[in-house]
Amino acid sequence: MLMRTLVTWFINFIALAFVGCNSQTFPGGPGSTGIRDVPFSETYLFDFKTGAGPISRGNPDGNLQIISAADLLTLLAAAQDQQLLGLGTVSGLVLSNGSPVQDIALKVTDADGNLLAIRMEGKKVGNNLVLPDGFICPAENISFDNICIKGSVYYNSPGGVPDFSNNRGTSVAGTYTIFNLPPGEVYLWASRGGRGSARIKVFANKISVGKLQVIPIAISTVGVTGSVIEAKDESTAVPEATVSVLGTTDPGLTTTSDANGLYSFISIGTNGNYLLNVSKSGYWDSYHSLNTTPFQAATNIQDVTKTVSTYSNSYIAEIASEGGVPVDPDKGIITGRVTGGDGTPQHCAKLSVRDAAGNDLSASGTVIVYVDGSRGSCEVTSDTDQTSTNGLFFIYNVPPGEIFVSYFTKVTLGSGGATSSSSGGMIVPSFPGVVFVQNVTNSGTNTAQDLSGSIIDAASSASVSGAQLTFLGITPQTYSSDSAGDYEVDDTLIGGRAYRAKISEAGHADTYEIFTMTDTETKQNFIISPPSTTTNPALGEIYTLLIDQGTGQTAENVTLRITDLNGNPIAGGEITSSDGIFRIPNVPPGMVNLSVISGEDSGNATLYVYPNGVTYFEFVMTKVIPSRVTVSGTIKDSAGASVVGSQWRAVGRSDVISADGNGDYQGTLESFGRFIIKTEKDGSYDTYNFFPRTGVLSSKNLDLFSISRAQIGDAATQAGIAQSSANGLIVGTTIRSSFSQEISSTALGAGPHAAALGFFNQDAILDIAITNPGTPGTVTVLFGSESVDGAFGNPSIITDGIEDNPSAIAVADFDGNGSADLVITNRDDDSITVLRGDKNGNFVAVDKPIVDAEQQEINPHPLSAPIAVVAGFFDSDTFADIAVVNEGDNSVIVLLGNGNGTFHPIVQNTSIVQNGVENAPKAIIAGDFNQDQRMDMAISNSGSGTITVLLGSTDGTFQPLSDPNTGSPISVSVGSGSQPESMALVDLNSDARLDLAVIDKNTDVLTIFIGNTSGGFDRLADANQNFVPSIAIGNDPSSISVGEFNGDGRADLAITRQADNSVLVLFGNGDGTFTLSDPIALEAPLTTPEKILLSDQDRDGLFDLVVVGSHIGTLLGRENPVGGISLEARDMNGARVGEVRYLDSAGQVDESLSATSAGVGFNGGFVIFNVPPGLVIVRATNGGVGNNILDSIPDAVSYTKLRALSLLPSVVSINGVTYDPVGPPPAGVPVGAVNIQVLGMDVQTKSDANSGSYSFDIDANGEYIVRLCWDLPGQPCQ
Length: 1278
What we know:
This protein is mainly beta. It contains 4 helices and 102 strands. Strands 18, 19, 20, 21, 22, 23, 24, 25, 26, 28, 29, 32 and 33 form a 13-stranded mixed β-sheet that branches. Strands 50, 51, 53, 54, 56, 87, 88, 89, 92, 93 and 96 form an 11-stranded mixed β-sheet that branches. Strands 1, 3, 4, 10, 11, 12, 16, 99, 100 and 102 form a 10-stranded mixed β-sheet that branches. It starts with 7 loop residues before the first helix and ends in an 8-residue tail after the last strand.
């Protein structure tokens, strides 16, 4: 980077900083002893927010940072940069729910959207460097290593100094520093790793400190580590082997094993199915499947470990010698092990190998070799044509193409002569001169099952009659669909095996699709493609539907790259689809690679293409939160009428959107952002809308305002005011956060009920599944309504597989098909039910959900009065797992997913692993408590008044939290006589660790526990280490949920109360304490609320709450106009400015009003005339508390929606410390005698010279800019 000229003023400024600097000590936190006494830069803190309660000493929100000149020099030196005279510096923190966020990369623009600064990794697409948000880096800003760099953006190290070598994004500290920004407003955009935006004012030669609130989107890459070993002797490492990912030319995906045989890839896409090639002189090339970790939460992306084996020429010769036939180098080898669901090798397996036509290849030169070992439990122990206890097999001289491998086993059970059978199969490719390594897993009981379903036209979704259905890899037999498009295949296909179906019909293309038979009657609809656009019969076509793993919906706006296994582009190379449906013609037959390359999305698949036909494939991939979302609405004037011929532009961006002839518009904005949108029209003021914000889904009804000059002229006349063009106007509405209720008419009956939300069908609205008690019980599935906000409809009652008194329910994708599945605990039947879902919201029960390694149902059953369940990724594979709480024997059992809707327990020394808990466990919750990237669990024990904490490991086992001194297991005590039940996990005190909120059913209180470094939880204490009392929450609380309901950025809680049929909202203060609001009475006919779930049913970006009781109620978050609010405007010096007038229900100035109106039709309207240009704070002075900070712009309108809450007290106390952030927040050194001024308010104070502590009182529910400055000798702070 070019060094800039260091100007004289900065040299003089830094010279002061060195006075006494080297002798300073740096204590550990703002509250530690020792005061730093060096010159400090004038610092402006933006986004200082008050909520409903006080900010007490110890609350990190009360720590005000001021940056010393010495630190500024350190920052510049670390960044190898310099600061120019007249420019400013921005420093800040990226947060999500109050916690720092890692790996957020930033882009900075001016008000016109011009790029000011950026430092970010990109992807080379053609000649362009494309950044994750779709931005194309200017050519002059592209570095040699594909980094887009402009200006002076730096991501600070955990020590708080810029790391000029870090181009990925924020460190664990979440902080950044940006030098050399021009004075005025700049706009920060989270362009990688998260979604969010902010604006901040830059001051010449000063420092601005801001917070950027984001929604993190875990970076959709993962690391891979592993070993290369000898196949013959697995204890022998193989150095200098080349390991590469097929289907790409990315040099980062080719590596060489080291002297110990170790290899690694730093970054590869998640949710991908890849092929690895291992090559070395003197060895056959070997191909290995690599499945990367499914996309998970940001704190739980686990690196993948993959051991790969090499096959020396001599070892292959030994295998051929055993087979008695020489190896043909023009043919392939398939090898692997037959394994149980838990990965243990299985013996007694007899393999069959067939080609697509169903021919038995062993009759035409293909040889199967079983590696010797014990076969002691086999039905015929002397038969060597079956796997031994090592499960190992070799199939060689396999012709190239798609190969169908199947097997069955017969194992003798004990001395009585009884046998059990298991079976499985796989479809794998064979390559000339290559060893293809793939294990095959027990997944059935060698029983033929019925198959039925419909043939569906891919384009029209209509049923297709007269279609011919055949199955590759078995003896050919044809089945036909009837006049309704339905088909049946009776007792032909073996349960647990994969098959490829070929569907043919005269008006359609031959369509090939892989599916898996379950070990029971199977329902499967097959897709048939319209005629192919491929004219060359030697080529094929791919018809793929991309499924978002997180929602089960079709993934929109995705770009795929299609290559051969050498990474060469084929069939057009790169293709983008807006609806997630891809038809890719002219594809050469054989194996091809599909890779998702759009933005931060990820996914990879290899598939086999047949000539003269269409290969249909549902591609489950990671679709991250889109960087931009669609927004739509109407542009209106101050009377609410549509404005025709207007256009708008988001300040900080350059693109312009025009409204149509009705004043309606549609455009896009960045996800999870807050914006200033400028509307323009002849005859109207340029109107700056300061209220718009977006969520993570499309936003509808985002109405904007364009205020006409005639309307303002009439209003000024009514008010007797002459509006000057040198001044600005502020127009707006006072609003109040509230909930509106939508109650479902579907009666659920008496409880207890459990409930879970998920995307069950193909729309973008959350659906709900609810358990109903009974012997047997049922599950009710209702679908979110697209036409009525918050409503649920189209109920279906599921009885299949549901047993006695279902007690809990969880949602996950247990079979990997991209659709949500359900798991239900049946308390009085000691069982679970697994319901496999499809993309249309249908569910089918799994016949045997808990099995052993041979896919046999476990007997005796390992469950005892299961009361609660949680889903997660508990081991290191790619299958979703569950943990079940047993009330009957006070235990937790982890059941690891097999990837097909079944689960197996962990077995050690022939015993099923369980963890003991204490008396009467009631609920379970999972998260990463100790920040080791593994899921941990907390279980509430109602009978003993405790919380059991279990810490996770890499193999799915859990260890109890232990005393660090004795190693003895310990639990978290909730209190004497307590009955803890419902719990919630969230970071309540901004320390980046999960905290625990626990409902005590016995005393009707809420107790807060703060997460500690060991993974345990400590009772919330104040600054003097006294326990903070539990919070009384009313009679019979039943459930708890987390959200953010009052706009202050702090985590809030919502609790259902059965005694008075209400919901109680508690507003978080940011330190684990809360301020209670008035309870919300639930509307009839909903009674007996049992469960409360967080949602956004109407996709407006405001949190909603779904309550389950006798019925389902949705509390829709709203910001409604409110009257009775008196206002004033102040400049940043605190002087009152402008002339406030209030509008009546018709939108006209009413001189008799002293507060906003509460009439019918137009509530809460106001206008402030003649506001001098610059930053202004508009605040409520009576009738509520709240404010907005906005710019007054000459001869323009600033439109705002001021949220005014009814809070008592309306003034809150702020207590904290001024400090120098010499380490990662909140660490730092206290700074004494700092002048503190809250701009625009009557607040000026100075921190204590000895401790740095301060206090002041200020309006609740407010957002402020705090100015900090330090008196220099002879230069007092002004």
